[in-house]
C-alpha cells in the first residue's frame, strides 16, 4: 500500500455514473478514450485539467446510478489516484476496487477539503492530510482483500497472479 499525494477536484453529493462517464461513450472500453470524456457533463474542463496523481473528493453517494465499470475506469485512466467521498454507492465501490482504483470513505475530510488543495492519503495508516489548509482525518482501514486487490492492480491481475497466468 502506498501514500498518495495529489491535487483535489471537488464535487458534491450524488455524482452518478452518467456524469462520471456519459452513456454515449459506453461503446468503447478503451481507457484513453474513456479518460478523454471523464466528468465531461458535470465538469467539461476536467479531462484537460486533471493530472496523474490527482484526487477526486466528493460528498455522499458518489458513483450512484448504473453499475457500469466504465466509471471508475475512466477516472483511473484520466490519472485520478484516489477518490475520497462521504459515502459511495456500493456498486461503484466494488467496481473501483475491481479495477484497482483506491477509494476512501471519510465524511469529515470530504466536507473540509477544497478544490485545488494538495492532499496526502496514507492508505495503510488510514490518514488523510490536507497539506494546503492543514487538517488531518482518519478513516477505517481497508480490508485485507481490498488491500490485496489494490496492490495487484485490480481483480483480473490478482486472479491471474493467483492462477500463475501472466
3D structure, described in words:
The protein is of the alpha/beta class. It has one domain (3-163): Aconitase, domain 4, CATH 3.20.19.10. It has helices spanning 17-20, 31-36, 46-49, 70-78, 90-99, 107-112, 144-152, 155-163; strands at residues 3-10, 55-58, 82-85, 103-105, 118-122, 127-130, 136-138. Strands 4-3-2-1-5-6-7 form a 7-stranded mixed beta sheet. Helix 5 links the parallel strand 3 (82-85) and strand 4. Helix 4 (70-78) crosses helix 5 (90-99).
- Which structural class fits the helix and strand makeup? alpha/beta
The portion of residues forming beta strands comes to: 15-25%
Provide the succession of SSEs.
Answer: EHHHEHEHEHEEEHH
Count of alpha and pi helical runs: 8
Give the CATH level 1 class: Alpha Beta
- Shape-level CATH architecture: Alpha-Beta Barrel
Task: Based on the model shown, name its key terms.
166 residues, alpha/beta, Aconitase, domain 4, 8 helices
Task: Give a concise summary.
The chain has 166 residues and is an alpha/beta fold. The protein has helices at 17-20, 31-36, 46-49, 70-78, 90-99, 107-112, 144-152, 155-163, and strands at residues 3-10, 55-58, 82-85, 103-105, 118-122, 127-130, 136-138.
How are the SSEs ordered, and which strands pair?
Blueprint: E1 3-10, H1 17-20, H2 31-36, H3 46-49, E2 55-58, H4 70-78, E3 82-85, H5 90-99, E4 103-105, H6 107-112, E5 118-122, E6 127-130, E7 136-138, H7 144-152, H8 155-163
Parallel strand pairs: 1-2, 2-3, 3-4
Antiparallel strand pairs: 1-5, 5-6, 6-7
Amino acid at each position: 500500500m502506498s501514500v498518495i499525494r495529489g491535487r483535489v477536484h471537488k464535487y458534491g453529493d450524488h455524482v452518478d455514473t452518467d456524469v462520471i462517464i456519459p452513456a454515449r461513450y459506453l461503446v468503447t472500453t478503451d481507457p484513453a478514450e474513456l479518460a478523454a470524456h471523464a466528468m465531461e457533463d458535470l465538469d467539461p474542463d476536467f479531462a484537460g485539467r486533471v493530472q496523474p496523481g490527482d484526487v477526486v473528493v466528493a460528498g455522499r453517494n458518489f458513483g450512484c446510478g448504473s453499475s457500469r465499470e466504465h466509471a471508475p475506469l475512466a477516472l483511473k485512466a484520466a490519472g485520478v489516484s484516489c477518490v475520497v467521498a462521504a459515502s459511495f454507492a456500493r456498486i461503484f465501490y466494488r467496481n473501483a476496487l475491481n479495477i484497482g482504483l483506491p477509494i476512501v470513505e471519510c465524511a469529515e475530510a470530504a466536507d473540509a477539503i477544497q478544490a485545488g488543495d494538495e492532499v496526502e492519503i496514507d492508505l495503510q495508516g488510514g490518514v488523510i492530510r490536507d497539506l494546503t489548509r492543514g487538517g488531518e482525518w482518519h478513516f477505517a482501514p481497508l480490508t485485507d482483500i481490498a488491500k490485496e486487490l489494490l496492490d495487484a492492480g485490480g481483480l483480473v491481475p490478482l486472479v491471474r497472479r493467483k492462477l500463475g497466468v501472466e
